[in-house]
């Protein structure tokens, strides 16, 4: 049979990603076989129709008050709404969107401002570092030179949740592809970026 994911466990003991609706659970086993990438590493597959996870009763990013460093290993033909968190729910999270929105496939989309561009058919590591005091963002594709933005506009989040794989209203614009690892730090880890990206690449053999 197939294996679906109801809880994506946080390996550091923090808040887990959950999905209690069976029809909206991403898949990790197909016909009794673990779904893996070309390097035989497991991956979680979103169907692009209604699959998503929630980080409930808390903010995954909360960039209005936190420094943040984020690394996500993904494979997708469209790479939109990887995660969303914001100051409104309808029609979508208008504050923080990892992966951007249709037609704006940015690494990080904040208050309508884009930082970096995710290419179509992207299979790799996207990452960003954010400093709350300066509102500066450095966004990366794999280990390429960063796209920089200064003075980013970040509103205060009010939803008290983060959606992974869709926009904040949870009813449309679903991510289509796979995610393998999501690493987030509510501190600035830019000084350790080379070590972090090297460790991820060594495991997944991205580039």
Overview of this protein structure:
There is one protein chain. The chain is mainly beta and 207 residues long. The protein has one helix at 193-204; strands at residues 3-4, 7-8, 17-18, 27-30, 33-34, 44-47, 53-56, 68-76, 83-85, 96-98, 106-110, 113-117, 122-131, 136-141, 147-149, 161-164, 176-185. It contains one helix and 17 strands. The strands form four sheets. A six-stranded antiparallel sheet has the order 6-17-8-13-14-15, covered by helices on one side. The chain has a six-stranded antiparallel sheet with strand order 7-16-9-10-11-12, with no helix packed on it. A three-stranded antiparallel sheet has the order 1-4-5, with no helix packed on it. A hairpin with a 4-residue loop joins strand 13 and strand 14. The model has no long low-confidence stretch (mean pLDDT 91).
Summarize the structure.
The protein contains 1 helix and 17 strands. With 207 residues, the protein is mostly beta strands.
- Low-confidence segments, ≥5 residues, pLDDT <50? none
Number of helices: 1
Beta-strand residue fraction: 35-45%
**Major pleated sheet:** 6 strands, antiparallel
- Global morphology: globular
Which value, in Å, is the CA radius of gyration? 16 Å
Instruction: Compute the separation of the termini in Å.
Output: 33 Å
DSSP helix fraction: under 10%
């Amino acid at each position: 049979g197939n294996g679906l994911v109801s809880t994506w466990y946080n390996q550091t003991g923090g808040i887990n990603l959950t999905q209690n609706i069976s029809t909206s659970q991403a898949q990790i086993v197909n016909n009794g076989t673990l779904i893996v990438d070309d390097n035989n590493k497991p991956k979680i597959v979103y169907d692009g129709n209604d699959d998503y996870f929630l980080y409930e009763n808390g903010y995954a990013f909360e960039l209005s008050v936190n420094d943040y460093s984020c690394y996500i290993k993904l494979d997708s033909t469209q790479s939109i709404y990887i995660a969303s968190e914001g100051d409104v729910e309808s029609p979508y999270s208008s504050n923080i969107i990892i992966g951007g929105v249709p037609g704006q496939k940015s690494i990080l989309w904040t208050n309508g401002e884009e930082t970096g561009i995710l290419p179509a058919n992207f299979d790799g590591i996207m990452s960003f570092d954010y400093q709350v005091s300066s509102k500066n963002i450095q966004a990366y594709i794999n280990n390429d030179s960063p796209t920089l933005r200064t003075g980013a506009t970040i509103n205060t989040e009010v939803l008290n949740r983060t959606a992974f794989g869709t926009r904040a209203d949870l009813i449309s614009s679903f991510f289509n592809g796979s995610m393998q690892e999501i690493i987030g730090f509510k501190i600035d880890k830019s000084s350790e970026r080379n070590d972090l990206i090297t460790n991820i690449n060594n495991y997944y053999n991205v580039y």
